[in-house]
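Final report, Chapter 2: Outcomes

The project's central promise was a pipeline that accepts a single protein chain and returns its three-dimensional structure in a standardized token representation, suitable for archiving and comparison. That pipeline is now operational. To close this chapter, we reproduce one record exactly as it appears in the project archive, with the input sequence first and the structure output second.
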Amino acid sequence: MKIGLLYEPAYWFLLEDLVRGIEHEIRLIGGQSYHLTTDTLDQTNVDLVYVLPYDEPENLKHLEAERLVINSVRAQEIAIDKIATSRLIIANNLPTPETVISQTPDAVIEMLDRYGIVLLKSTNLCGGVGHRILRREACSQRRLGRGTITTRMRDQTYQVAFGARSRILDRTLVLAPPYYAQRFIGTTAQTNDRVYRMYVVGDSVVMGTMRVKEGVDTAEKSIINVATGAYYQFLQPLDGEMVSFALRLADLIGFEIGVVDFLRDPSGHPLLIEADCDGCHLFICRKFQEAPGYGTPYNFNAHLVKRLAEIVGGAPHRR
């Protein structure tokens, strides 16, 4: 089995441990790995190409026309486009927080009027990066209308306005479309300190984790990712509803190997929030490898490589 790993060499400082881990698992099952770059794509005969961050998506599309690529270009593009992912979730009646997707701010403002707080989400980043809490501040002076909209950045409060391009004007943050917002999911104290992740490999969820963040006492601190202090815990047993929803979303997006993230609503029911996969635009965080209890059942790279071997052997897969 010959597996080509396609990635941008400039990202080696980010990808070194990941690539070496995948290559190790390929060797364990008797396979060979190849570092593919733009210059070597046509020179190396491989059975399958597995894609990691890579800056030339057009080359990848041409490559897919000639070789087997995992994950498919289509799946990669949907996974990085969080609006496209949300549209699939909503169109297929999967559970998700109340969502606004608009070129105008009216629906966001209306959601703020109803709830007083919303989560304005990044359209093309993962792990909560780029998300922002918007608040409708109460105002006692009638002449100022319904009250201003504010957000916090670097421990400073900014008034929010909407305009053609995003910028900061004095203490006002101007936000440009598209506007992608969701009802904030939290407790009565308006906090949420964990995000659940299901790891999809083929037609199975092979493991689950929970990203937990301590000291969450405001909505702003509820944006959960490793960069803001969250840490991983392994889930055992897996939530059956989350497994079912994760596999359904993998089918809709078309990724063969990826992850699906969930919150729980105040009643404990799972809500889909996003999906990611290794690919041209991003890669799945492997920081769970540093969590207590990490071992064979949670070796995601081993599950990944086993699945690639099955596909090389002719197993059907998502496209």
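Archive annotation: Confidence is low (pLDDT under 50) at residues 140-145.
This record, like all others produced under the grant, will remain available to the consortium after the project formally closes.
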